[in-house]
Structure formats: C-alpha cells, structure tokens
Amino acid sequence: MSTAAVTARALIRTSMADGGGTRLETLRSDPPLTLRRTGPRRVHLVSTGAGPLRGDHLDLGVDVAPGTSLEVCSVAATLVLPGLAEAPSVMLVRARVGAGATLRFSPEPTVLAAGCSHRLVVRLSLAEDATVLWREEIVFGRHGERPGRCHARFDATVAGRPLLRQNLVIGEETVDGSPAVYGDARCVGSTLVAGPAWRPSAGDKRERRAVVGEGWAALPLAGPGVLVSALGADAVQLRRRLEHGEDAARSHATG
What we know:
Layout: E1 7-16, E2 22-28, E3 33-39, E4 42-47, E5 57-64, E6 69-74, E7 78-80, E8 89-97, E9 102-105, E10 110-112, E11 117-126, E12 131-139, E13 149-158, E14 161-170, H1 173-176, E15 187-194, E16 211-213, E17 216-220, E18 225-232, H2 235-250
Parallel strand pairs: 1-5, 4-6, 5-8, 6-9, 7-10, 8-11, 9-12, 10-12, 11-13
Antiparallel strand pairs: 1-2, 3-4, 12-15, 13-14, 15-18, 16-17, 17-18
C-alpha cells in the first residue's frame, strides 16, 4: 500500500498599485493549497484535497509589501487526518509584513482528528511600523472523539526583535488532563494583535494590565502587541471569546 506524502507550496505576494493602494501581485497555488482572490485585498485559502495526512508537508508564504494591506481567510475548517506515514504532517506559514503594511490572518479552525500527528509552525516577521491581527483556532477532534497529537509553534519578531515565542502541545495525556491547562475545554485559540498603535508613547508611565474575561485573557506583551488566549467548549464559543478578547486588546492601543 502506498505511503506517498504530499508536498505543496503556495505564495501570496502584494505590491503597491499605481497611484497607491494594494495590488495582489502573486497568487501561486499548489494543491491542496489553493488560493482564490475574493476581494481587492482579500484572499481565501481553499482546500482542494483531503488532509493534511501524516507525512504531508504544506508551506504557505505570505509577503505583504510596504504600504499595502492584505486579509487571508479560508472557506472551511482544516481537518487534519491520520495516515500511513510515521512522520507527522506539517503546516508551515511564513509571513513577512513590510513597513507601514497591514495583515489580517484569520483562517477557519484546525480540527485534529483522532490518530493524527501534526506540526503547525508560524514564522511571522514584522517591520517596525507594520500592523497585524493573527488568529489561530484548534479544535480537539471531531464530535465524540479524542484529538490526535499536535505541536503548534508561533514565532513573531518586530524589526528582528522577538515579540512572541509560543508553544502549544495537544494530545498528550499529561497536558490534556490537567485542569491547569485545558481542563474540560474542546477548543483552544489565540490572537496576536500588534503594531505601532500598541507601542507606549514616550513618557507614558501607565502600567499595561491584563484584561480577563470568562474563558479568555488579553495579555499585553513586552513589545508593541497584545496576545489574546481563549478556551471553549466548541468552536462557536471559542470564536466569541476570542472576539471579546480582541475588543479588549484594542483598549491597549495608544493611537
């Protein structure tokens, strides 16, 4: 029986249009990573194949040119499936946001089917005055099943300086069963909002405090940004809680 894995690479690149504004310069798809333009500055990711399955390696590049803006969404949740390969599936997203540019990255949730083994890796590089909203949502299995395993890694820098380093591990009994980690939640998510509006102005000595609600928290970072984290019983509740936290994060903005 074949254990052939899929390797796919896709790229979104913007450029400045004549007279200003954003032009979608490059949309390069590689099934199952298929990109569709759905607005002047909006791209939807369409899955044109099952998975990812164990052994698959998917690589999405996002390059937002200086002074432009881009929104990246997806049309449906990503269902991570088991497979015959020993190696985990990998979803790597590499994004660069140039000077004065804006990126909103908010795909639908990743669902970890029973038996899967997955790595989700994000490498986000921001210019000094770039702005980003980056949302990630993970669902612990389909209805009535335990999740597979997932290691999610998020690295964000601003002008080469670390802004956020985060690791999440799902599907390990020592972690999943702890009331101090996920408790009885079935979903976990986070949103990074960052940019010059979250950089304290010179001479501003006000303490930046965390804002905590039911199932969510908005935590100011040492750099120009806020991390929203949330848990939920289902994807609808998780999204609602993340949006509450994103609203609270905007209260930290200085401009």
